[in-house]
């Protein structure tokens, strides 16, 4: 694998998003590799899984070129199905999952981070559920995870505004569990050491109970996101959002279809 790196210490299974030249934006091949890596993580005896990004950020979200090349409805549907599989594996992983965020965690990148049990952020990190900027809705379970952490009203506001949050702002909203200054790897390592000294079996049993209670709701959310996202991809607003992004200008959304 090239786009996803991983290592298994026997205690911590570490996953690294490894497309730094594109701010770890997720394309078809990267998503497929991530799914394969999470299968390996599930099979590992490690009790903790860490996910982080290489280079300057965690992940800028879905790859714009992928969105352009996925004009084929079948390909777009396949990509969304892969994303849904990844999210369900993350949510049901029988381990404590930790996202270590630096730089940008935007769009699908933010959904992936929120799919983990603990979200750690470097002080200069920026988080945004910014699908609205290209006329789309959150996918990757973004609606589910935002609602769980901040409630429906605040979730809608974050989705509709696409607001870019600082790490401190995200922590105040309880989207981030801890903020660190300086070396994120060092602080994440200290967090993992503390987890390794905890009664992980009991923690994982609690996770399994919540997963059993709520997995059906997450599956339903993913199915609804898929249908809505495929509809949104056909809108003039989405086409305008993509053009504006590529032309580095503000989009002009005034379409109703």
TrEMBL record:
Organism: Bacillus glycinifermentans
Record bears the keyword Lyase: yes
Pfam families: ECH_1
Enzyme nomenclature, EC number: 4.2.1.17
PANTHER family to which the protein is assigned, alphabetical: EG:BACN32G11.4 PROTEIN, ENOYL-COA HYDRATASE
GO terms assigned for molecular function: enoyl-CoA hydratase activity
Recorded superkingdom: Bacteria
Protein name in the entry: Enoyl-CoA hydratase
InterPro entries noted in UniProt: ClpP/crotonase-like_dom_sf (IPR029045), Enoyl-CoA_hydra/iso (IPR001753), Enoyl-CoA_hydra_C (IPR014748)
NCBIfam families: PRK07659.1
Keywords, in A-Z order: Lyase
């Amino acid at each position: 694998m090239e786009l996803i790196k991983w290592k298994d210490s026997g205690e911590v299974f570490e996953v690294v998003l490894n497309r730094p030249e594109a701010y770890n934006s997720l394309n078809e091949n990267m998503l497929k590799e991530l799914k394969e890596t999470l299968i390996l993580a599930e099979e590992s005896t490690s009790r903790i899984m860490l996910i982080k990004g290489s280079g300057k950020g965690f992940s800028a979200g879905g790859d714009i070129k992928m969105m352009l090349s996925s004009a084929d409805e079948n390909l777009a549907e396949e990509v969304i199905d892969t994303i849904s599989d990844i999210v369900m594996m993350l949510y049901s992983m029988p381990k404590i999952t930790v996202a270590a965020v630096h730089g940008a965690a935007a769009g699908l990148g933010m959904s992936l981070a929120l799919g983990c049990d603990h979200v750690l952020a470097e002080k200069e990190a920026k988080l945004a559920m910014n699908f609205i900027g290209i006329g789309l809705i959150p996918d990757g379970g973004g609606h589910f995870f935002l609602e769980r952490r901040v409630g429906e009203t605040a979730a809608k506001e974050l989705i509709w505004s696409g607001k870019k949050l600082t790490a401190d702002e995200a922590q105040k909203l309880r989207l981030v569990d801890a903020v660190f200054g300086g070396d994120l790897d060092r602080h994440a390592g200290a967090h993992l050491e503390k987890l390794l000294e905890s009664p992980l079996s009991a923690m994982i049993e609690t996770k399994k109970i919540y997963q059993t209670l709520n997995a059906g709701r997450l599956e339903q959310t993913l199915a609804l996101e898929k249908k809505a996202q495929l509809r949104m991809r056909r809108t003039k607003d989405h086409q305008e959002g993509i053009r504006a992004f590529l032309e580095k200008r503000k989009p002009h959304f005034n379409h109703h279809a």
